[in-house]
Amino acid sequence: MNDDFMREAVACAKESVESGAGGPFGAVVVKDGEIVGRGGNMVVGTNDPTAHAEVVALRDACKRLGDFSLEGCELYASCEPCPMCLASIFWARIDKVYYACDRHDAARVGFDDAVFYEELAKPFEERRVRLLKMEDSEARVVMDLWHQDEGRREY
């Protein structure tokens, strides 16, 4: 745990607010005591609902390190990651996350993730956004094609 890294994450959040790029969220990815990725929320500035600070920082770190795996890295975030960001953190193989504000602080200023947590806890058929399975034999062929590729890099 390092206060300097958290201050940098908070500085990224402040920059997002002051620039109008997005909400009050910032994050940094740290490897071996060095910041390897930075990100502020850029949802508004890029019209990209996935441009949350954590995702932006993960993308930056992966690009800088030349790898999609961030195993051995930690993430410092100005606020508790939302479900989308948390899933991205899992996919990136981040070892540990430190955060300053929590989901209740975010809800107090208009970012309420509670509905997402509630929706994810429901069975598929009860969710607001319906997930409907469509059979397609070609999709399975593509899955098998990837699985049979001995040169594939699994993640």
Structural account:
- By secondary structure, the protein is of the alpha+beta class.
- The chain is 45% helix and 17% strand.
- The chain has seven helices and four strands; from the N terminus they run H-E-E-H-H-E-H-E-H-H-H.
- The chain has helices spanning 3-19, 43-46, 53-65, 83-92, 103-108, 114-121, 137-148; strands at residues 26-31, 34-40, 73-79, 96-101.
- Strands 2-1-3-4 form a four-stranded mixed beta sheet.
- Helix 4 (83-92) links the parallel strand 3 and strand 4 (96-101).
Throw out a few tags for this protein.
4 strands, alpha+beta, 155 residues, four-stranded mixed β-sheet
First and last CA, distance: 28 Å
Mean pLDDT reading: 96
Number of helices in the DSSP assignment: 7
Strand order in space, largest sheet:
2-1-3-4
Can you write the helix and strand succession as a string? HEEHHEHEHHH
Fraction of residues in helices? 40-55%
| Residue fraction in strands | 15-25%
Concise summary:
The protein has seven helices and four strands. It has helices at residues 3-19, 43-46, 53-65, 83-92, 103-108, 114-121, 137-148, and strands at 26-31, 34-40, 73-79, 96-101. Strand 3, helix 4 (83-92) and strand 4 (96-101) form a beta-alpha-beta unit.
